[in-house]
Specification:
The complex is a heterodimer of chains A (119) and B (188).
Chain A: E1 4-5, H1 7-20, H2 25-32, H3 36-43, H4 50-60, E2 68-69, H5 81-91, H6 97-114
Antiparallel strand pairs in A: 1-2
Helix pairs in contact in A: 5-6
Chain B: H1 7-21, H2 32-38, E1 41-45, H3 54-63, E2 70-74, E3 80-84, H4 90-105, H5 124-138, H6 141-150, H7 154-161, H8 165-174, H9 177-187
Parallel strand pairs in B: 1-3
Antiparallel strand pairs in B: 2-3
Classes of the chains: A mainly alpha (119), B mainly alpha (188).
């Protein structure tokens, strides 16, 4: 049986909680009792060990079943963020065309510059 | 402006928590670059793109600098980059950055401006929250009370906390600092 625990979604949910509390990942490690290396490994897409997972679920109040995908391949991918931002700007009537285009150019340049190479 | 119940108190708790993370006193000024670095948010000024997009930078920093204050790009790896207009006055830049950091801390989603029926979809609530939290990060309730207690004039307080006069006044009025101060005087 292959149950897929969505580590990426779990980490994203933890990240939202961390930011909502104005905490660093180091703070999360200290408060939850997991090692900093467990959190680093999760950032690289690796699964936490069972004790680490239990500690993080306890700290966050999240439920493990929220992150178990029903079937591989059914996960809906969100649109690339750059596309969302572009849509927002194009529809903003208060922007002049020249400025809207300039913002798009900057966002595309930033996206290209900061995008991490594919793993 | 209507904020959900308890929002103002939780905004101040967040402002204090950010100060604790910097080992600052509750009423101390705050360094947004340190906050961003601690929260793993990267900050990129508009001028950093002058080489690759010279016309776009000129459009947004000289021709129409009001068109763009700041925005956040979120990558699916969780990495967040704030791009902000550094042609604005330094105090306004702090306000812009604080506003963007607030959206991130509050977990606000990116929203489309047009809804499924073709109407303008403007999420006033999210903007109201960031408009409250942004200044509250720069001047906590304790900082506002400190300004009133010390009898600091507006110019000195503005310089000390790195905020514009409108932001300063909004926080002095919004935090209830004057009322708290006069109550504490009468109770002593």
């Amino acid at each position: 049986m292959t149950e897929n625990f969505d580590t990426e979604a779990f980490r994203a949910a933890l990240d939202s909680q961390r930011l909502a509390m104005g905490m660093t990942w180091k703070d999360v490690a200290e408060e939850s009792g997991v090692s900093a290396s467990t959190l680093t490994r999760m950032a690289q897409g690796k699964r936490p060990d069972v004790d680490g997972l239990a500690a993080l679920l306890r700290w966050s109040g999240l439920k493990a079943e929220m992150f178990i995908a029903a079937k591989e391949g059914t996960k809906k991918k969100e649109a690339e963020p750059i596309a969302q931002i572009t849509a927002v700007l194009r529809a903003d009537k208060s922007l002049s065309r020249a400025s809207a285009e300039a913002i798009e150019q900057i966002l595309k340049a930033a996206y290209k510059r900061f995008k991490e190479p594919a793993k | 402006m209507s904020l959900r119940r308890g929002f103002k108190a939780s905004a101040n708790r967040l402002s204090l928590r950010l100060r604790r993370g910097q080992d600052c006193l509750p009423h101390a000024p705050i360094d947004l670059e340190i906050i961003a670095a601690r929260l793993e948010i990267e900050i990129a000024p508009l001028s950093a793109f002058a080489e690759e997009s010279p016309e776009a930078v000129q459009q947004l920093s000289i021709i129409d600098s009001e068109a763009f204050s700041a925005t956040t790009i979120r990558f699916d790896t969780g990495k967040r980059i704030i791009i902000h207009n550094d042609s604005h006055h330094p105090l306004r830049q702090r306000s812009n950055l604080s506003h963007e950091i607030s959206h991130i801390l509050l977990g606000h989603p990116f929203t489309y401006p047009i809804d499924s029926t073709g109407c303008r979809n403007h999420d006033r609530d999210l903007e109201d929250e960031a408009n409250w939290l942004g200044p509250a990060i720069l001047i906590s309730d304790e900082a506002a009370l400190h300004i009133v207690r010390q009898g600091m004039d507006e110019q000195s307080a503005s310089t000390h906390y790195g905020v514009s006069l409108p932001v300063l006044r909004m926080r002095i009025n919004g935090s209830g600092a004057r009322i708290r101060h006069s109550r504490s005087r009468y109770s002593n």
